[in-house]
């Protein structure tokens, strides 16, 4: 059937959404009383779909035509020409149509948000609420962070009225989560509820903050934050044993670290004596031992903690995290002393001691040494030589051994270069991110 005008854009858009494809022909009245009219075009080519009755001036012909019939034009949902050519190249036309259909916006649940932007593509949720900001809307988030796995309710318990229960059991569940790991199903929900500080890590700092929440202390909005406190981790080799001393003027409420399994045994950890009210837990993960200790009472933080761990040295400590009573991170400087308490000599220039694990995903531990207080930058570069992250860039880093962490969750798999830069020299090592 010939029509005097094309459907309006909105009508075309609706037909795209409802039917997937709309086909319109054009037959202009080159000779209205002769063979070249709209009706004759339709009859000659067997057209049964809508055909636009063009004027004798050939407006559409001039817009798309090249002097040959047939001439095929494919427009996408934005009315942009993505294909135009004379003759009939069937495969090219079909490919263009399929591409246009693939690029169509879709709103499967009809909530007003196209699927690429909809945080619940299959569930109607026009408010797009997402209480935990994880890009999974509350309407389809299996964790239900609005009602069940709220911050602190790590094990997902509810009372008889359906309200979350946050108690010491959640602290124990969070400790187990950190030690044993896991990132799928309910473990993923537990990790979201256990990320009490709201940063990208779930570690002993979250444990301390959760303890304070349960005891009626400060909440996540007022705890942590600010500049990290300073502390030291020293290893003293006395000749008879090896003593570890953690110290900070801001006091310590918890710590965690990892050791290679060949360095010490679970029996060594079982002999560790901690201050009253403290608890130590550990797990064996393949070839490493993961250790977490914290002030379970919430009332006995310490400026100095001493314990014996036979056979350890500074290089043994990996993934070290230390927390203050207010769930703030304590930046740790490492030092080591031989019998007579003479500090082990530091290198003459900056030196990367270890990158662990390597390959890694997504967090890399960077341990390095500098000989004296000096302006220091710790940076990460990709294979194009582009700087992708600065881990540290200040002029007050104290001499000794230091550890920083790089979370590469927003980077693609590949080789990266970790570089320590100082006025007296640099050191660079490679790390492989495998996702």
UniProtKB/TrEMBL annotation:
Pfam families: Por_Secre_tail. Residues 355-430 form the Secretion system C-terminal sorting domain. Signal peptide: none annotated. InterPro entries: Secre_tail (IPR026444), Thioredoxin-like_sf (IPR036249). This is Secretion system C-terminal sorting domain-containing protein. It comes from marine metagenome.
């Amino acid at each position: 059937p010939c029509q005097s005008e094309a459907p309006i854009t909105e009508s075309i858009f609706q037909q795209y959404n409802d039917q997937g494809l709309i086909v319109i022909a054009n037959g202009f009245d080159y000779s209205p009383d002769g063979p070249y009219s709209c009706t004759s075009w339709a009859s000659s080519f067997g057209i049964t779909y809508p055909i636009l009755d063009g004027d004798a001036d050939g407006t559409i012909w001039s817009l798309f035509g090249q002097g040959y019939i047939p001439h095929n034009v494919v427009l996408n949902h934005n009315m942009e020409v993505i294909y135009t050519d004379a003759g009939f190249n069937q495969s090219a036309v079909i490919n263009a149509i399929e591409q246009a259909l693939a690029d169509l916006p879709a709103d499967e649940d009809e909530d007003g948000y196209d699927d690429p932007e909809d945080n619940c593509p299959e569930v109607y949720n026009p408010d797009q609420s997402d209480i935990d900001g994880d890009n999974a809307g509350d309407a389809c988030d299996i964790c239900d962070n609005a009602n069940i796995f709220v911050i602190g309710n790590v094990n997902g318990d509810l009372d008889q009225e359906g309200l979350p229960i946050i108690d010491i059991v959640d602290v124990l569940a969070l400790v187990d989560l950190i030690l044993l790991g896991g990132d799928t199903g309910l473990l993923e929900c537990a990790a979201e509820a256990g990320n009490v500080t709201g940063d990208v890590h779930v570690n002993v700092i979250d444990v301390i903050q959760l303890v304070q929440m349960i005891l009626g202390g400060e909440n996540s909005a007022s705890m942590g934050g600010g500049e990290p406190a300073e502390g030291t981790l020293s290893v003293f080799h006395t000749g008879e044993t090896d003593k570890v001393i953690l110290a900070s003027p801001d006091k310590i409420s918890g710590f965690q670290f990892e050791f290679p399994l060949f360095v010490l045994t679970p029996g060594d950890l079982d002999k560790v004596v901690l201050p009253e009210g403290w608890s130590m837990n550990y797990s064996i993960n393949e070839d490493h031992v993961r250790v977490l200790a914290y002030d379970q009472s919430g009332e006995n933080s310490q400026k100095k903690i001493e314990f014996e761990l036979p056979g350890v040295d500074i290089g043994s400590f990996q993934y070290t995290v230390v927390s203050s009573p207010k769930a703030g991170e304590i930046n740790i400087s490492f030092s080591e002393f031989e019998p007579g308490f003479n500090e082990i000599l530091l290198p003459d220039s900056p030196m990367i001691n270890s990158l662990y694990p390597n390959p890694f995903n997504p967090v890399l531990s960077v341990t390095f040494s500098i000989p004296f207080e000096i302006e220091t930058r710790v940076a990460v570069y990709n294979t194009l030589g582009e700087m992708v992250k600065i881990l540290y860039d200040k002029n007050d880093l104290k001499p000794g051994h230091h550890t920083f962490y790089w979370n590469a969750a927003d980077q693609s798999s590949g080789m990266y270069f970790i570089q320590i830069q100082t006025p007296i020299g640099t050191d660079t090592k490679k790390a492989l991110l495998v996702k």
